[in-house]
Design brief:
434 Repressor (Amino-terminal Domain), two-stranded antiparallel ribbon, 20 helices, about 75% helix
Length: about 400
Amino acid sequence: MADHIGQRIAARRHVQRMTQADLARGSHVSLAMVKSVERGARTPSAVLLEALASALGVDPSRLDRSYTGTSRRVHAALPSISAVIAGYDVPLDPPTRPRAEVASAVEEATEWRLAAQYGRIATAAPALLTDALAHLHAASGAHRAAAARLVVAAARAADAVAYKVGAHDLSARLIDVMRWAAVQTEDPDIAAVTSYVHAETFFAARAHRAGQVTLERALDAGPGPGTTRAAALRGALHMRTAVVAARAGAPDAAHAHLREAGKFADHLKEGVYLGTAFGPSSVRIHRVAVAVSLGGDHIGRALEMAGGWEPGEEIPAERRSGFYVEIGRAQLWAGRPDAAFESLKVARRLAPQHVREHPWAREDIETIRRIKRSDTASLSSFAEWIGAV
């Protein structure tokens, strides 16, 4: 069976015109591992299979017919994550790994988060949170701030999983852990990151007006953009506030925040700053998101801004995938279901786990199936994959 899995992976890689080195980079595994799997010397675990499938833009079941799905494994990990943070402020056991090793693992989890590899995060998160918290409780002096930064990043990675799969109570608790640790870093940039993520609590509760006020207060309280990183994070916070304001039905505020974000982006290259993507392309994606969030007369504007433009690989896969989900929704509202379906297929190719857990993608596939006169095999297959049937 392993030979067949390896052959399917190699065949898909050739179709995508990827080298083995490309696949290794895209899946965040070693080149030796890719070679071993493709020649059948190693049977990929569920975690490895998901990573390879994500980089190839296919569902893991296309590579291994016995694959049972990411969702079940992710949900199985949630109670362990919850248990770890139940007493996050209580010192327990000493760390089991050196801080440098934990820092490397946190960095890897951040890469997984940006690539929407939720299965890998869920598997690693309990141990990662346990060790990061243990290091913080054991640290003193100058080491304490560094340990607190590890907790913030580890909790953010775990939160990405909880939020995406709809475990919003757990997500809110993980954000509380982030906020608790952020104070101990004494770093305003970390505070900005935490405020950015805190917006998820308001999205989940549909408390958009409260979210707008909270994020605007964070912007008012934050220091000026003294460094490139600080400028990027302040711009990102304006970007997210714009979306919250749009969903709160405040178009003037939304566009004002987009303008501020654009001013910061004009002087920066697209990049990832403390785990947050920001730059000209990210702002353009959020202009589309704001237009879609405002709905109604703004849909044409969303399609106009997106027309003919494709986000490049400098944008993390999760954000690129989200862009096509947003465009698909605008196309569907504009009476273009076929175009919407094509956009959703692109989104799935870029980040399958992200699309599978995206409520808008599921809703829109259900709508497309209702309004299409002929239900094609590809549409039915997509609907079954995403859980819309």
